[in-house]
Design brief:
The complex is a heterodimer of chains A (113) and B (424). With 113 residues, chain A is α+β, with helices and mostly antiparallel strands. Chain A has a single domain, classed as Alpha-Beta Plaits, CATH 3.30.70. The relative contact order of chain A is 0.36. Chain B contains 21 helices and no strands. Classes of the chains: A alpha+beta (113), B mainly alpha (424). Chains A and B meet through helix 2 of A and loops of B.
């Protein structure tokens, strides 16, 4: 099962003083186990471009389509057996402590036949 | 017979869900088998091996339904294989507490109580699938319509499928926290029955289901002392059920209960479960501490003989593990009995905010009443009566008001009293 993991900032990060897990170790582990399909960091929301077409007219807006205190800082696409496995991977990501992670299951359209 | 069917029903449901992945089908087929048994056994006599009869009947039904639906051959073959192995096991071979039962039921419980499901859905699904209550019974227990409860169950099952929640036992390093999640669901079911947070007072059937679930858990997860702690707590509280309401259905506070009406066999079972919890030798968890408190009450021959010093000490320990206003409120009650109402009122001042919770003003009212401060007590009773949610509890508060010479016809509390600081 595929999950999109949205890596988000959080106004209330973990306050414990334990050292954060290392992102490179995390990546090496999930890639090594074949659980990681794709992923990267994203430029902040202020660098976003929002695209709409209305009555044939292209409308571009600088910035995100919703204003929020927290934003998406990165993403990963995971291939996991089930939610529990995806949760374990997410829980070991450093941003689970300094931000929060949102796991969105894929809902395949099946366009590729 | 219904009780004897409990474990058997659960074993068949869990097996069918594992093999077909279809929760509805599993529940319907077992329900169908049980209904047939209820018609046939009283008429023709029970079969030699009732468990095998139920299993075979439910499996046959499942195969019929799956064939009609033109289910893929692989699923049909798995159900047929499961059915054949259950039949060849013969009498005693389908031990309801054997390893296969244990694995199937644990998988089901951990899935029903998965933390990624909404809490109300966890409770509903556990009662439907594990306890075997009908949608109508669960709807009645939670005072919602059958359609609403049906929707809740449907959405919960859909969420399991869509989110990718697998039917499995958690990894060893998550077992303790996930077990705590299952215990929380069972405790919620019990409390809904015990305090009847909505409607007209306690609902013993629901509390009884929770006691049964706690017993199953104690058999399935015997190494976890909190499981035994919760079971002890529920048994000790359930033991008081006959004495908690009077002939008119009104609540009787523990201090005034007729202790001869407490169920001695449940108390003995509760104390035994508590000894099992202690035997692990680990530091007590919150359920065990609450069971220890319940045990102090259960073993006091009279209300006056209660060891309130021990109860206060246990609440002190509990408030370290669970620093919540509700625990501090209960502690203040115990202090009020150990050191008198004035000390209780002092302890009450440290409880903190409990917006909308009627027991905070109700406890203050009771302490003021016992301190002889009638006018202040009546004002606090009014405040409690404005927040109370069940008719039985309101009648109890009305009775207290009458005893103090007040007027129990309900009225809005004075504006200053109604303000709830920090209320949401």
């Amino acid at each position: 099962m595929k999950y999109l993991m949205l890596v988000c900032t959080d106004p209330e990060p973990d306050t414990s003083t334990e050292p954060l897990p290392d992102i490179e170790e995390w990546a090496a582990d999930v890639v090594g186990r074949g659980k990681h399909l794709l992923g990267d960091r994203l430029r902040p929301a202020e660098d976003a471009t929002t695209v709409r077409v209305r009555s044939g007219e292209l409308l571009l807006t600088d910035g995100p389509f919703t204003e929020a205190k927290d934003w998406i800082a990165g993403f990963d696409v995971l291939e996991c057996a089930d939610l529990d496995e995806a949760v374990e991977i997410a829980a070991r990501h450093p941003m689970a402590r300094s931000g929060r992670l949102e796991l969105r299951p894929f809902w395949p359209l099946g366009l590729e036949g | 017979m219904a009780a004897a069917l409990g474990a058997e029903r659960l074993r068949i449901v869990a097996g069918l869900i594992r093999v077909t992945g279809d929760w509805d089908l599993a529940e319907d087929c077992v329900q169908d088998a049980v209904e047939r048994a209820l018609v046939r056994w009283p008429r023709d006599g029970a079969p030699d091996n009732p468990a095998a009869w139920l299993t075979t009947t439910a499996h046959r039904r499942a195969l019929d339904v799956l064939r009609r639906r033109r289910t893929e051959a692989a699923t049909l073959a798995r159900v047929a294989a499961m059915s054949a192995s259950a039949a060849s096991a013969g009498p005693g071979g389908t031990d309801p507490y054997g390893a296969a039962y244990r694995d199937d039921v644990l998988r089901l419980l951990f899935t029903c109580c998965h933390p990624a499901l909404p809490p109300a859905g966890r409770v509903a699904l556990t009662l439907r699938t594990v306890a075997g209550l009908s949608t109508r019974e669960i709807a009645r227990a939670f005072l919602v319509t059958e359609a609403t409860m049906g929707q809740r169950l449907l959405r919960t099952r859909q969420r399991i499928a869509h989110a990718g929640i697998a039917l499995r036992v958690p990894e060893p390093h998550r077992l303790a926290e996930r077990t705590a999640g299952v215990l929380a669901v069972v405790y919620l079911v019990f409390n809904e029955g015990y305090s009847g947070t909505a409607g007209d007072g306690p609902r013993d059937e629901l509390a009884g289901q929770a006691v049964w679930l706690a017993g199953e858990l104690a058999r399935l997860l015997p190494a976890d002392d909190e499981v035994h702690g919760l079971r002890a707590l529920l048994l000790l509280q359930h033991a008081r059920r006959a004495a908690r309401t009077d002939a008119a259905g009104d609540l009787v506070p523990m201090q005034e209960q007729d202790r001869s009406r407490w169920d001695r066999s449940l108390i003995a079972a509760g104390l035994a479960a508590l000894r099992t919890a202690r035997a692990g030798g680990r530091a007590p968890g919150p359920y065990r501490l609450q069971a220890e408190i319940a045990a102090r009450h259960a073993t006091a021959p009279t209300a006056g003989a209660t060891d309130w010093a021990a109860v206060v000490a246990l609440y002190d320990e509990l408030s370290v593990l669970q620093p919540s206003p509700v625990v501090r409120l209960n502690r203040a009650v115990a202090v009020g009995f150990r050191d008198g109402p004035a000390a209780g009122l002092t302890a009450l001042a440290e409880v903190g905010d409990l917006p909308g919770y009627h027991l905070l003003p109700a406890v203050r009212a009771d302490l003021l009443r016992r301190a002889g401060r009638t006018a202040a007590a009546l004002a606090a009773y009014d405040e409690a009566r404005a927040l109370v949610r069940t008719a039985t509890e309101r009648r109890f508060l009305d009775r207290r008001v009458r005893e103090l010479g007040g007027d129990p016809t309900w009225r809005e509390p004075a504006a200053t009293v109604g303000v709830r600081p920090g209320g949401a």
